[in-house]
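Recall the central idea of this unit: under ordinary conditions, the amino acid sequence of a chain determines the structure it adopts. In this exercise we apply that idea directly, starting from the sequence alone.
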Amino acid sequence: MTDRPLEGIMHDLSELGDSDGCIEVQEVVRTLESRGFGPLLIVLAAFLMLPIGMIPGVPALIGLLFILCGAQMMRGKSGVWLPSKIASIEFPADKFTASIKKAWPKARSLRRYLGSRMTWAASGTISRIIAVLLIFAGAAVIGLGFIPGLPFLVAVPVLLFGLGLTLRDGLLIILAFALLGPAIWAGAAWAM
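Accordingly, the structure predicted from this sequence is:
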C-alpha cells in the first residue's frame, strides 16, 4: 500500500472511469478489493453523496453492497463476493467519471487531517461490530433510501468507517460510531 492510500484509490478509480459506455459493479469491486473492505466502503459511501447516487436504484444497490460487505467481514473474508446479478449491474461511465472528478479535491484536502492513530479501534473485535452496523446501515438505505437526505446521513458514518479501516485511524471509527446510531434512528423515526 502506498504512503497515500486515498490518492492511490482515486487514481485506480480514475483509470477505471476512462472506459466508454458503462461500468459494471464487479469492475469497481475488483479494482478495490485487493486493498480490503475500507476502500470499498469509502467509494460506496461517497457514491451516495455524489451525482452517481442520484441515479434511481443506486442507493438500494449500495445498501445491498453494504450488507454484503458487513456479512463477509463478519465471516473474516478478505475479498467481496457478489452474486452475478449484482456484479453485472451497469451504470454510466460519464456519471462515474464526474463523481470521481468531484471527489479528487476533497480526498487531497483530507490527507493532512487523517493518519494512523488509536489503532486499537481499527482492528479485532471492533471490525466485527462495524460489520454488524454495516448490515443495519445497508438495510436502512435499502428500506428508506427514497427519503431525501437519509442516504447521505447513513453514508457519512460508513465513509468514516471506510477511512478508519483504510488508514487505521481509530478516531474516525469512534466518530463513525457516534454518527451512525442517530442516522439510523432518524430514518426509523421518520418511517414510523
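Residues 5-186 form one domain.
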